[in-house]
Design brief:
This protein is an alpha/beta fold and 226 residues long. The protein has helices at residues 18-27, 50-59, 77-83, 98-107, 153-166, 184-190, 199-202, 207-224, and strands spanning 5-8, 33-38, 64-69, 87-91, 111-116, 134-138, 172-176, 194-197. It has an eight-stranded parallel β-sheet. The chain binds D-xylitol-5-phosphate and zinc ion. Residues 9, 11-12, 34, 36, 67, 140, 142-143, 145-147, 176-179, 196-200 line the site of D-xylitol-5-phosphate.
């Protein structure tokens, strides 16, 4: 069984000390840097744009997992590849020609992800599941950090895992929003491979320790108790 990946969401970092917080993630047991891009149209918030991503890329030593919460993401696929994104996730709800978008992401040498809003049924991924590297289940409505975890996420993760197995696909399941030590184990049990956490990591006194504990608890659990 592969180990759980932890992807701290830099949206919860202290932007006045961005380099410090990126270096904290570099030093920690985290696996990826999660980067949330919001356009104020697809979601009711604007996060940060290309100059900030460029700065993150200059300091980060781990893969850059970019989550686009924007309309018409096709316009920016090349730009994010040039900025150093290794994983690029678009929203199912924002893509009219999702299959084409996925191919365009891969053509730029990045891993392709598709995110689903809380109301979107996982079975809608059936016809592209073998084409995508990551399926990201939103466990809050996208747009803001620090929201409460939506409980029906466990069932969605479980159903998605079933779909992946039935399809003989190797897609990884990422869960994003309100993740903490209380729901992490059940998410892994349901089938999650990657946990994104923002507030839970950055709002603690010792984020390195929080990451270490989150990682250890899910790994121990996935190896010995599944
Ligand atoms: C929400 C973003 C998340 C967010 C998670 O729209 O996609 O990545 O930063 O933050 P927390 O863990 O605080 O819910
Ligand atoms: Zn995100």
């Amino acid at each position: 069984m592969s180990k759980t990946k932890i992807a701290p969401s830099l949206l919860a970092a202290d932007f006045g000390n961005l380099q410090r917080d990126i270096e904290m993630v570099n030093k920690s047991d985290a696996d990826w840097h999660h980067i949330d891009i919001m356009d104020g149209v697809f979601v009711p918030n604007i996060s940060y744009g290309m100059p900030v991503v460029k700065t993150i890329a200059e300091h980060a030593t781990k893969p850059l997992d970019v989550h686009l919460m924007i309309v018409d993401p096709d316009r920016y696929i090349k730009t994010f590849a040039e900025l150093g994104a290794t994983h690029l996730t678009v929203h199912y709800e924002a893509c009219t020609h999702l299959h084409r978008t996925i191919q365009a992401i891969k053509a730029e040498g990045m891993k392709a992800g598709v995110a689903l809003n809380p109301h979107t049924n996982v079975n809608l991924l059936k016809n592209v599941i073998k084409d995508i590297d990551i399926a990201l289940i939103m466990s809050v409505n996208p747009g803001f950090g620090g929201q409460s975890f939506i409980e029906n996420t466990y069932e969605k993760v479980y159903n998605l895992k079933e779909l992946i197995k039935e399809s003989d696909a190797s897609t990884l399941i990422e869960v994003d929003g309100g993740v903490n030590s209380k729901n992490a184990k059940a998410l892994i049990k349901a089938g999650a491979d990657i946990l994104v956490a923002g507030s839970f990591i950055f709002k603690t006194e010792d984020p390195i320790k929080t990451i270490q504990e989150l990682k250890k608890s899910t790994d121990r659990w996935s190896i010995f108790e599944l």
